[in-house]
Structure formats: structure tokens, C-alpha cells
Amino acid sequence: MIFSELSLIEKETGLKYDPETATLSGVKNGVPVVVFDNDKKHRFDIVCGAVITERQFGRIYIMAERFPKKTMLGIENVDGCVNIYCKGYNLMQENLPLLIEFLEKLTAYLKSEMRKTTPIQVAKVLELEDYAILTKHIRSDGTVRPPYNIRGTVKGILGGLLGLLIGCAIFVVFIMMSDLVGWIGGIIMSAAVISLYTVFSKKLKTVDCIMTAILTFAGWALSNGFAYLFQIFLKEQEAGNTVNINGILADLTNYSMKYTEIAGNLMNRLIVTFIFVVAGAIGSYIFYYKHHTKDMY
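RE: above sequence
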């Protein structure tokens, strides 16, 4: 028989306390949940059988704002469950009402955001007794930052490069058709880079936003630059001159002075397409955050 403060909140939480394992378990708001009094690690380990993405962890941290400072140690996805680690002595006795409130908000949030539920094995939860949090990257608010996924970023960059090639090809076609519709190609190119980046990396964190922005900007510059060179090439072909892209690049200054109208259009196009490349990027980010959060990770 193990006494735990968790036994004092059975009625308030609607969960059942097991004195043999020091766990409070059951289904709350349609979500399987187990709270383990991990005395060996001086923690309360909360395990919820819900499949969510790590991007939604921020909302869970916000729910714990009323906890005593540095109570929340970390959150992670493990075997389709959400594991939340809290300092046990920070939530005992007078702070138990905060735990009750947190469990209510947590399960209600998970029910609205989860992709599906996952059965919880109490035996697996008890194994947390020997589990030490290895990630020691502490944020300013005392929470633990999960380890960085380098492999996902590398995959994302490869996907982003593929999106850049496809997007640039479409972008150039639109620019060559008409300067007026070039902005449509800018939106498509941005969406292609960001979409394929996220499909390959299965994540979109700060570093990924920076990398997709770099790739998108590179695509904008390459597309407009190639369209400019190709327009000069077509003008030379119409004039009966034999020339290639390398030849134009080697004598670009003279060609630019020769075709001032094309150069003037390029400057206008750069400004217009840049605006819509940025708009396309912002739109793609919003789309992924709103519609793909349950498919990430």
C-alpha cells in the first residue's frame, strides 16, 4: 500500500487511485489518462493516451502557467502518448487544486486537438520510475526544450530544393507569359518550397521557417534572373543572332544597355513578384499550421 496525495483528488478528478502502484487513472473528457506519483524521481508523471504534435506542446505549457515556478519539467510524445513531467513536491497538498484544474483543461484540450486516442499500459507508466529526463536544454521559463531533429531538417532542405526546382520552373513560365501574371507564379513557387519542405521534414519549427525563407528567396531571385536572361536570348534570336545563356552572362552589361526596356521591366517585376512571394510564403505557413498540425511528427 502506497500513500500519495493523488488519493486525495479521486473525487475531484473522476479518476481512480490505485494504492499498489501510486497511480491515478481513468478516462477524463474522453481521453485515457494516468497520473503517476513517481516518488523515486520526485515527480508527478502525467501520461495521456492522445496522438498530437509537438507544436501543440506550447498550449500545454500555457495551461500550466499557474503552477509554481519551474514545476513543469518537460513534455514529449512517447509511443502515441503525451508524457508530461512535473516536480512532485511542487504540486503536493496546497497546490493539488492546480493539478485538478490542469487535468481538466489538459484533457479537454487533447480531446479537441488529438488525432486519436491510445490505450495506456500502467506497466509502461511505472517504468518512468527509472526514467531520467535527458534533455537539459532549459528555457528561461524553466521548461525543457526537446532535442533538435537534425535529420528532419536535412530531409526538409532536400524537399525544399525539390520544391524550388519545380516552383522555379512554374514561376518562369508565368513570368514569360506575362508580367501581369508573374505574381501567380511567385505564390505557387513559395507554396511548392514550403509544402515539400514540410512533407519531407514532417516539422516546421523556427529553423525550418528560416531555411524555407532562404530557399524561397533564392527561388525568387533565380526565377526572375533566368526569365530576364531568357528574354534577352529571345530578342537576340529574333534579331537573327546566334547566342547562348553563357554568352549573355559573359557580356551582361552590354546586353542590359542594349535592352533597357527589358531591364526596366525586370526591376518592376522584382518588386511585384517579391511582394507575392512573401504573401505566398505567409499563406503557406498559415495553411500548414491550421490544416496539417495533426499530421506533423
